[in-house]
Amino acid sequence: MKRSMFAKLFLLAGALIAANGCGDDGGRSDGGTDTDADIDSDSDTDADTDSDSDADTDTDSDTDTDTDTDTDTDGDVCGGIAGFECEATDWCDYAPSNCGAIDEMGTCLPRPDGCPEIYAPVCACDGTVYSNQCEAQSAGFDVNQLDGCTPPGGMFSCGPVFCDLDTLYCRRNVSDIYGEDDGFSCAALPDGCPDTPICGCLAGEPCGDMCTGTGLTGLTLTCPGG
């Protein structure tokens, strides 16, 4: 009986010890879930959108449209092999005054506004005799030192001018400068010349030994240039 009792007590003590051991730290669930979510979201979106769009659109469009519509033809060329003509307000000036005989070019110059009322006939490039040089220019023409015109009655040609047959002779001074006209002028016949003058009566004149012509066609003394 006593042995049976002792056995029961031993079993009970063992059960108690076992129960205490199971509850000791049995439910320890170290839930140390250190979720150090150090999400350094330093999203330094330094969107330095310094859109310094210095659009210096200096469109200095200096469109100097100086359309000089000055249609003044003064100084334009005329004549030549192409036969260029001046405007109606100009006349064609040739140098020398040969009217473009060998296709020389001339220059357009303004026509005179008015002319003196004097009679000093000249031969112009159109083959017409005008009362003076100004009148020829007003008509648009230069004078012609190569002659080419029918002289007025009682006169003969002396380059672009005309001299009286009975009282005058022609004096020509040849130019030695290119582009410059020869000099033409009418001079009085010396005393002692017959009614129909001859070259002999001009012997005492400058260049008297350079006489051409007759009393019927007119006498001309030519002095060389230089």
Overall, the morphology is elongated
- N→C terminal distance: 186 Å
Low-confidence spans: 1-7, 19-71
Count of alpha/pi helices: 2
Succession of helices and strands: HEEEEEHEEEEEE
The average pLDDT value, as a whole number, equals: 78
Can you characterise this structure?
- The protein is 12% helix and 21% strand.
- The chain contains 2 helices and 11 strands; from the N terminus they run αβββββαββββββ.
- The N terminus is likely disordered.
- The chain has a domain of 73 residues.
- β4 and β5 form a beta hairpin.
- The strands form 4 sheets. The chain has a 4-stranded mixed beta sheet, with no helix packed on it. Strands 1-3-2 form a 3-stranded antiparallel beta sheet, with no helix packed on it. The chain has a two-stranded antiparallel sheet with strand order 4-5.
- 21% of the residues are buried.
- By secondary structure, the chain is α+β, with helices and mostly antiparallel strands.
- The radius of gyration is 62 Å and the shape is elongated.
Briefly characterize the structure:
The protein is an alpha+beta fold. Helices cover 12% and strands 21% of the residues. Strands 9-8-11-10 form a 4-stranded mixed beta sheet, with no helix packed on it. The chain has a 3-stranded antiparallel beta sheet with strand order 1-3-2, with no helix packed on it. A two-stranded antiparallel ribbon has the order 4-5.
